[in-house]
Design goal:
Rossmann fold; six-stranded mixed beta sheet; globular; disordered N terminus; binds adenosine-5'-diphosphate; binds magnesium ion
Length: 276
């Protein structure tokens, strides 16, 4: 082996090593205006095509709702984007250059995709503020050690997110005392603390009152711009109230895209929903 070979090997290993370690430093190239490119995606479970040649593009900073009947593939799509499920074929790119299929679930979270599951998972015994403090500790981009006293700047950041989530008055209340809706907002706030570029939210308003739904729509709108937000939702009143672009999934593919008025007037969408 020549000295040059040795150097090349070392360089390559070094590059791979850095690549893995710096997942939280990776910045997607959104110069074309898109944060997510999903193309020709398919996955089967026991011969059943849960996702079937699906194409989906999400613009940077937009709020998109994904709707569709039960079994349409909505959750499976989220599972693929977040690295929980690997597809049989197709591609998923974060910005133009980050091939998400190369990464594990924890790496994808670090690269900047946050996911909120349907059931809220906050720390019940801790206060609202402490829940956010923990979320801050998990964010590698913010200097933080658990034993250290928070800086004024860090406290301000937590307060700012609490105001946005409508929870500032409940800052010192244990999370166990919150209503179902308030827990959902707390969990969204905890995700925002991680500064994800793309936030995937699964059925945020199930079990909420109409008033809580309105506040959720407002919160999700406030997050756009800085974050891109994809909401999977069943509740048609909510999707209508959120007044944003809608993608309709059916049998693992995109059936229609457009405003809620446009997709509701689409005969294919009408027949799918009547047939449900
Ligand atoms: P949605 O969220 O739109 O209701 P899903 O993505 O959960 O739909 O499911 C799509 C289809 O794929 C369903 O028929 C479901 O039963 C099937 N499916 C999802 N995940 C798995 C899995 N891990 N194993 C087998 N079948 C699955
Ligand atoms: Mg689902």
């Amino acid at each position: 082996m020549s000295g040059l070979d040795g150097l090349r090997n070392f360089t390559r290993r070094d590059r791979v090593f850095n690549f893995l370690v710096d997942a939280d430093e990776m910045v997607p190239d959104t110069s074309k205006g898109y944060i997510l490119y999903v193309e020709d995606l398919s996955v089967s479970f026991d011969g059943f095509k849960a996702i079937n040649d699906l194409n989906l593009y999400i613009r940077e900073g937009e709020l998109r709702c994904i709707i569709g009947p039960n079994g349409a593939g909505k959750t499976t799509l989220m599972d693929i984007i977040t690295g929980k499920t690997k597809p049989d074929k197709g591609s998923v790119f974060f910005g133009q250059d980050i091939d998400l299929l190369q990464f594990s679930e924890p790496e994808i979270a670090k690269i900047g995709i946050g996911r909120k599951f349907q059931k809220p998972t906050v720390f019940e015994q801790l206060t609202v503020f402490e829940n956010l403090e923990l979320a801050m500790a998990a964010n590698k981009r913010v200097w933080y050690t658990l034993s250290a006293v928070l800086t004024a700047e860090q406290i301000d950041r937590i307060d700012e997110i609490l105001v946005q989530a409508g929870l500032i008055e409940l800052k010192l209340v244990p999370a166990s005392m919150l209503s179902h809706g308030q827990k959902q907002w707390l969990e969204i706030a905890m995700l925002v603390m991680q500064e994800p570029r793309l936030l995937l939210v699964d059925e945020p308003v199930s079990g909420m009152t109409h008033q809580e739904m309105d506040k959720t729509a407002e919160l999700l709108h406030q997050l756009t711009g800085k974050h891109s937000v994809v909401v999977v939702e069943h509740d048609m009143d909510f999707v209508r109230s959120i007044a944003t672009d809608v993608t309709v999934l059916h049998q693992g593919s995109v059936l229609a895209e457009g405003s809620m008025d446009q997709v509701q007037a689409n005969p294919d969408v009408v027949s799918v929903y009547l047939g449900e």
